[in-house]
């Protein structure tokens, strides 16, 4: 049989502080239930003491009142314990929040440190100098080109540019009027005059 490799269980995200807070809240809830039972018992004992007193059983009524007084002192102690548990729970939860903030600041500082390490001041100055030199060289080339052209060259450049612009514009087709069947279109006076000039002149014998 082949060896079966078991998958590793993912690490639990529950911390010891989370467990402590959970236990405190569970104890708080149990203490509140205990308080509720005492309060119900106090009400019951008081009503029973009244009935015994009405029946003339003074000693038994007195005994129930002593029990009631003792339970009242226990109830006061549980109030103090609840207050301490609530305060401790809030302190632990606030400490967890502070820890998360500190961890976030720590990670941010480490990331910033790595960025600063990757940025060398000498390299940055070298890049800036090379960029500045490249810009200056390009400006010199432009100045030489502009200074080496005559006025005639500039006119030729402008003409070529205008020609390129006109070629890029859409052409508009020119439509000539169609000649209708059976209708002669009279020629223009200019064409008729030119034809008269072209007729040969007869020489006299």
From TrEMBL:
Q: Which domain of life is it from?
A: Eukaryota
The protein's location, in the record's own words, is: Endosome membrane
Gene Ontology cellular-component terms for this entry are: ESCRT III complex; multivesicular body
Q: Which residues form a coiled coil?
A: 102-141
Provide an example Pfam family for this protein. Answer: Snf7
Q: Which GO terms describe its biological process?
A: late endosome to vacuole transport via multivesicular body sorting pathway; protein transport; vesicle budding from membrane
- UniProt KW keywords: Coiled coil, Endosome, Membrane, Protein transport, Transport
Q: Where is this region: Disordered?
A: 167-205
Q: Which InterPro entries match?
A: Snf7_fam
Family recorded in the similarity comment: Belongs to the SNF7 family.
Q: Which PANTHER family match?
A: CHARGED MULTIVESICULAR BODY PROTEIN (PTHR22761), CHARGED MULTIVESICULAR BODY PROTEIN 6 (PTHR22761:SF5)
Q: What is this protein called?
A: Charged multivesicular body protein 6
**What high-level taxonomic lineage is stated for the organism?**
Eukaryota, Metazoa, Ecdysozoa, Arthropoda, Hexapoda
